[in-house]
Amino acid sequence: MPFIPHTEQDVAEMLASIGAPDIEALFDEIPAGLRCAGLAGIPAGESEMAVTRRAHELAAQDGFYLSFIGAGAYEHHIPAAVWQLATRGEFYTAYTPYQAEASQGTLQLIYEYQTMITRLTGLDVANASLYDGATALGEAVLMAVRASRTGLRRVLVPATVHPRYRAVAQAMVKNQGIEMVTVPYDPDTGTTRVADLPDGPAAALVVPQPNFFGALEAVDALTAWAHEHGMLAIALANPTSLALLKAPGSWAEKGADICVGDGQPLGVPLASGGPHFGFMACRQALVRQMPGRIVGATVDKDGRRGYVLTLQAREQHIRRAKATSNICSNQGLMVTAATLYMALLGPRGLRDVALASHANTRALADALTVIPNVRRAFAGPFFHEAAIRIGGNVEEVLRALRAQGILGGYALGRDYPDLADAILFCATETKTEADLQRYAHQLERILSKRREAPPCAYKS
Amino acid sequence: MPFIPHTEQDVAEMLASIGAPDIEALFDEIPAGLRCAGLAGIPAGESEMAVTRRAHELAAQDGFYLSFIGAGAYEHHIPAAVWQLATRGEFYTAYTPYQAEASQGTLQLIYEYQTMITRLTGLDVANASLYDGATALGEAVLMAVRASRTGLRRVLVPATVHPRYRAVAQAMVKNQGIEMVTVPYDPDTGTTRVADLPDGPAAALVVPQPNFFGALEAVDALTAWAHEHGMLAIALANPTSLALLKAPGSWAEKGADICVGDGQPLGVPLASGGPHFGFMACRQALVRQMPGRIVGATVDKDGRRGYVLTLQAREQHIRRAKATSNICSNQGLMVTAATLYMALLGPRGLRDVALASHANTRALADALTVIPNVRRAFAGPFFHEAAIRIGGNVEEVLRALRAQGILGGYALGRDYPDLADAILFCATETKTEADLQRYAHQLERILSKRREAPPCAYKS
Amino acid sequence: MLIFEHSRAGRRAAAQAPRAVAAADDLPAELLRADAPGLPEVSELDVVRHYTALSQKNFAIDTQFYPLGSCTMKYNPRACNSLAMLPQFLARHPLADADTGQGFLSAMHDLQAMLKEVTGMAAVSMAPMAGAHGEFAGVAMIRAYHDARGDTARTEIIVPDAAHGTNPATATMCGYAVREIPTDRDGNVDLDALRAAVGPKTAGLMLTNPSTLGVFEKTIVEIQKIVHQAGGLTYYDGANLNAILGRVRPGDMGFDVIHMNLHKTFSTPHGGGGPGAGPVGVSERLVPYLPIPYVVEERGFYRLAGEADCPASIGRMSAFGGNMGVLLRAWVYARMLGREGMRRVADYAALNANYLAAELRKAGFDLAFPARRASHEFIVTLKPLKDSTGVSAMDFAKRLLDYGFHAPTTYFPLLVPECLLIEPTETESKATLDAFVAAMAKVKAEAESDPEWVKGAPHTLPAKRLDDVKAARELDLAWK
Amino acid sequence: MLIFEHSRAGRRAAAQAPRAVAAADDLPAELLRADAPGLPEVSELDVVRHYTALSQKNFAIDTQFYPLGSCTMKYNPRACNSLAMLPQFLARHPLADADTGQGFLSAMHDLQAMLKEVTGMAAVSMAPMAGAHGEFAGVAMIRAYHDARGDTARTEIIVPDAAHGTNPATATMCGYAVREIPTDRDGNVDLDALRAAVGPKTAGLMLTNPSTLGVFEKTIVEIQKIVHQAGGLTYYDGANLNAILGRVRPGDMGFDVIHMNLHKTFSTPHGGGGPGAGPVGVSERLVPYLPIPYVVEERGFYRLAGEADCPASIGRMSAFGGNMGVLLRAWVYARMLGREGMRRVADYAALNANYLAAELRKAGFDLAFPARRASHEFIVTLKPLKDSTGVSAMDFAKRLLDYGFHAPTTYFPLLVPECLLIEPTETESKATLDAFVAAMAKVKAEAESDPEWVKGAPHTLPAKRLDDVKAARELDLAWK
């Protein structure tokens, strides 16, 4: 019996102790009519060996591609130490540290994580994670509405925020009667102009940096505008970029009030979409409105430093219907990985990753835009992602690239009809010069409709 | 500086403490003429990311094959838990447990391993490993010569012992004037006949079970013969087979005196040849002649059970020129894996592995020998390996199979000129019926010289 | 020591940095940060040694019996981890087209189908990333259903008082008022109270079964009918699915929605607080509202369904579709268990819980519901002990840690005073349960003979009793 | 508790067994075993929990500073492990043809070339599987060289008295008599004694440099010349190569053979006692005798050279050619270090050793060779402390464990009474070294004020002082 240690003798002794004739009897309180005859639709169990072989075959079927897709999930080198340590049984098979004295490992790690996030974001406090960047944005919107002195249920969200994030946040907040107002973007720069911010009061303005197009927003101006209009400023940031770009806590005069984002770039594999994790930091004054677990330092009976879950009165298991959120399990193991990643990279390493990613994307943009009819979609500075217009059928071109083992980027037309011929691409530090050239060469060939004999086999 | 934690300030402070002007000065006792200018032939260092990519590319280049090669190294399913636990830092980065109190993890594990080996072999004591099965055979020969009351420097070794093992043992013992006499095999059964054992005294007889051809030797008769002639019997056994076959300690009346073998089938990856490990067990009376580390149980100051390295007076660091062997580091981590493997498989699981391997090899032998001109090379029972004669050019056939992603086995002609048209093949529990059919189908096709259009792509 | 305390200006794990490139001189200076972020500056060995040491301060399934009620802390098979982390699975970009992920997607489709089968529901979406996330999806679907019918007067969700806090919190997040109903003496939902509570305002009911009290709701079918007759929908909180896997199916009980916690029932790791996965199954009428994406198969080709396929969907739950790596682990587990193995989960979870309850009772402990069968968990109340010795459930729990056992869940459910909610799971052996009973008995004896010693526990852990009050009062949430 | 004590008849980790097949009824009954082998019958969780707990009882580089002299316990980069364990590398059969392993073999060729470069030798074989195995290969080559010339009167190997025990043991295994020569007061080989020892019986000299005394042999070139002039060959024991990597090369010193310990200098793991790898490098005249296999490249194709290529080879060292997985780890490490990184190894190993020696001296400890530079390690003698307090080096070492430091090597080299051989390695930080000095000083103070406390150490470990004598006298080598 896989994973069940009982011997026949054990079972007999246990049933005798219980006073039950058989295991069947343990279910005698379940109405007979409900009892299920079996699970015919489920295959018979297989050995670890058989499932292992099957999984390897499926993985081999999918293979590897040279990927230039970013659009919210970024390929970075993950140090080998990260997952070798994160999957140690003591991290991997513990749960939420309810018994603090028996969970100092996880608790101290989260406290260190919270500290790292505050230092990246320039804000005072951070929580122990949310599901992903998109739900973190939704939680930030809810939090801002709760925290706003205005009582307003209206939040301004630029169209340059990741379309999926906007959709997820929308699904989260709409049942509470909160309105998300979309702010259009400047078609020249792909960024948000202060002039385009709508009139009328709102609880908060979301400020993405970099934005979905990879472009850098005028964060100081946007933040200042929000504060001037009595709104909170919610920063939405890429954590890698924070090693290079101004911390949200330093935007404008007073800094952003809340910062959220997706932590995936910090040591978490792409993995077809998850598990990733959302991070959230805020000013001290807002901490009681923050959702999710928070770890605090304290002392033990002997006065020695130790760590506990704190401010639990915000949470669902105490506050129930009045909790700041319904979140319970979060993305603890991802936070473990991210903490290891940030410790291994350090301030200079993370900055080097940001710089190399920026430089590679810049070099790729340069290489692509020498191809006839290919041009940058937007003017202005970008971080590690940029958009080109190719003046042709994007989906077809991407398919042709895929046949060469290259994932060329994200078709912006899927979300922005006016960008139907645009590709959003990203080249992180993982890309070599040869990789960039290969992309440029293949794109040039495809656009000029030249044939190339055997498809190149990076995918294996 | 990869892996060096020193800051400039650290270096300055440390040099000041030493009283040296610079690091260069620390080498001032090395004659100037010897100092090396640099290592021009070595490439510049690369980041973990770059080396990781390179290693993945090399691995992808090699790919996977459907392998039916055995010949001393066997593909078995390795439970995922084995290496996840064995590579825990506490096992992976500790060393020989010289400080017993700080090494109870490794010491107890080795004690458990020794116990498992004694139970598999049916002998009294076991050591903590040797390099591999071949060197274990060499050590067993040396040990038998030391232990033999006859003082003879002559050992009988059947030709059915793995040719590489014979070569390695030969290289180990020849400088000590020990002669290894090869005993011919019966060409009908591929086993050793008592009648073929040579006259004249010797210190020991080696008895392989199964032998290199996968065939089962008449171990009782051979062992009895050795003992009747005043020789020690050295068993050479496959550890998987010991779950099914009679334990060497039970061979004939008195049992084999020493048992050695390669532990690789017990949870150790094939890995192009190593690291594997050799195991060795013997009767209690011979323990002081045994080479290598041995762990013993004892008690601590409070009378609680604990474990230490023991009988160190046999070893090189104490006995120096008079040691039983020069071995120092052995294959500790492989022993860790093997212990985990044996614990996970248990007596029934290991027996199931042995039975399934036997059944698969039998089924494959049946499937192959219906092909015209293909016949078993030897009559008689086998464990999980058997030889066929194909009446054709073996190397050419193996090459054709390889082109289909199949490694068809080992060409016996490389070591046995009279078996030039023979292939030694093995089908462990990892093979499915479809795998066996695929091999049989392809061999049949190749031997009948039919062409098959696109090569099958198990190799990826 | 904190990792920051190992930091030394200029130290770094240099092998981890990419080749250095020039500063980003093309970026406007006002957008750049002036100072480096204050991450620790440490070596790779510092990191490995620090976090290895930290890990050793945790209790975990891999090191201790961890009978944390309602959390299903069972063995996490190691193969689930290694197979979910195959390089190709890890490397795949979430926005890569479906034709680059047929292997992965086929496994997802397979899991989705298996979850449909074990719950008996009409369809499943694996988009939610945790149990509470699944609850949100479920209640949002209930709301979408009523809204689509123009039935907007339904503003209440009924929740038993024994429910997990996530239930009322979820109802609030979906814009509903919460109406609590009491539990009767036997641990069942009070049917009269339920009948009194339902009405035209009833949007639905959220119910955990087996309940958080560790017993199966005997009147589950009546409950469902009462709510349905009032026009409400029924939500089945599957937190305790481990207790009934293969024995009884929520779909067969007539429920409209269920969420599953794969980190519980399908043994994906708990990871120190996640990630989990909270797939939802629905009855026919809620299928149009399922969260996206889910996996669809068309002539052997697998892909994720999106907005265009599901116009009435409550929408996306996350940017990229769910905790795929967790789902892969669940898939491996489910394939290893198979149909017989799944049923054995409930069988042996029930056997262990009932045996442990019986043995503890014999050892002098009071069960909260002694007349009932335990499901996969049960409640001991230490009220009498507290009254006689002053030793609380919290003290008792802390002292268990000294004996090498993780404590059961304490003070939940809230209805039972000084309670321990104990869930042994099916993967623990009788020997372990017996050792736990012995430790429980020993702590009880200690409480009776030397209550101060127990109140001072733990005595042998990396930290002694930690001061929660100080932590909340003098907030120290980041190192300075 | 032993794993056997968790065993229960009929229990098993069932997911690990292949599909059951019928008994092997075709095999003769007399060849089958009657009883099942007495392996433990346990669940997968039993195994995971038992061995996780056992692992936590170890000191290791990943958890403690481990200054075990002559063992080079430096940080083992984690990438070496994960890359050596890529599925394709693990799956490849050792007898698979070279064309199925060009990726793997090219890495091996690359490593072989790098090892040639760092040693300055004419050729390298990576066949030996540990340091002692490399020594065997080296001395066997020396013998093969003399034998090939018919120079059979050479029956002695000269070994300094400070040598590792493997040196004389190896000489014996190769059929040689051992002639020991003394060390002078400064820790150098006594040249006069060497001159007196060499002669027509001299087959060769085995020398460790830097020596086991932690100092560089200043007269290394003279030593080599004396032996060569007598017709002997010279063997360079590379156990301490970490001290000179990139600074000086054995080949440049005129030596004929060197072995390297990749688990030391190239940071492959020590694994609780192996596996190591002990490649050998040789001068031109020994090239024909190199052990097989080694990697050869012909027009971009890589393969292992065998008997046919190398008719004069001393032969095979193992069935399949070496500890390939260990070599892969060394390759990853070498590529990450590169040429500058290799030289830095010696630089910072020397810096750490000399700093630690200086600080310990300031703390009142006696260095065995205070007038010498330390190489990568050095010796403290506790003779004065032993004389005044009765606290031995062993007691001292055990007490260090209580402070969370693995003890240095004790009682080796044998020449120095009550010695601690201390090797910090380059991967430890100044802060760690300072903490170690503080612990050393504290133990010294304890020895002076309360010697019995130190003699009773360790006090805080999973076991107290273990009885070695009983272990050897009442042999208990397997559980019954």
UniProtKB/TrEMBL annotation, chains A, B:
Keywords from the UniProt entry: Oxidoreductase
Pfam family, one: GDC-P
EC number(s) recorded for this UniProt protein: 1.4.4.2
Alphabetical list of SUPFAM superfamilies matching this protein: PLP-dependent transferases (SSF53383)
Keyword Oxidoreductase: yes
Summary of subunit composition and partner proteins: The glycine cleavage system is composed of four proteins: P, T, L and H. In this organism, the P 'protein' is a heterodimer of two subunits.
Similarity comment: family membership: Belongs to the GcvP family. N-terminal subunit subfamily.
HAMAP family with a match to the protein in the record: GcvPA (MF_00712)
Name of this chain's protein: Probable glycine dehydrogenase (decarboxylating) subunit 1
Annotated gene: gcvPA
UniProtKB/TrEMBL annotation, chains C, D:
Domain Glycine cleavage system P-protein N-terminal: residue ranges: 28-291
Reactions catalysed according to its record: N(6)-[(R)-lipoyl]-L-lysyl-[glycine-cleavage complex H protein] + glycine + H(+) = N(6)-[(R)-S(8)-aminomethyldihydrolipoyl]-L-lysyl-[glycine-cleavage complex H protein] + CO2
Coiled-coil residue windows: none
GO cellular component, one term: glycine cleavage complex
A GO molecular-function descriptor: glycine binding
Keywords from the named record: Oxidoreductase, Pyridoxal phosphate
Modified residues (N6-(pyridoxal phosphate)lysine): 264
Highest taxon in the source lineage: Bacteria
InterPro entries assigned: GcvPB, GDC-P_C, GDC-P_N, GDC_P, PyrdxlP-dep_Trfase, PyrdxlP-dep_Trfase_major, PyrdxlP-dep_Trfase_small
Stretches assigned to the Glycine dehydrogenase C-terminal domain: 347-448
First-level EC class: oxidoreductase
Record EC number: 1.4.4.2
Cofactor(s) the protein needs: pyridoxal 5'-phosphate
GO biological process: glycine decarboxylation via glycine cleavage system
Subunit and interaction comment: The glycine cleavage system is composed of four proteins: P, T, L and H. In this organism, the P 'protein' is a heterodimer of two subunits.
Similarity field: Belongs to the GcvP family. C-terminal subunit subfamily.
Protein purpose: The glycine cleavage system catalyzes the degradation of glycine. The P protein binds the alpha-amino group of glycine through its pyridoxal phosphate cofactor; CO(2) is released and the remaining methylamine moiety is then transferred to the lipoamide cofactor of the H protein.
Listed name of the protein: Probable glycine dehydrogenase (decarboxylating) subunit 2
Source species of the chain: Parasulfuritortus cantonensis
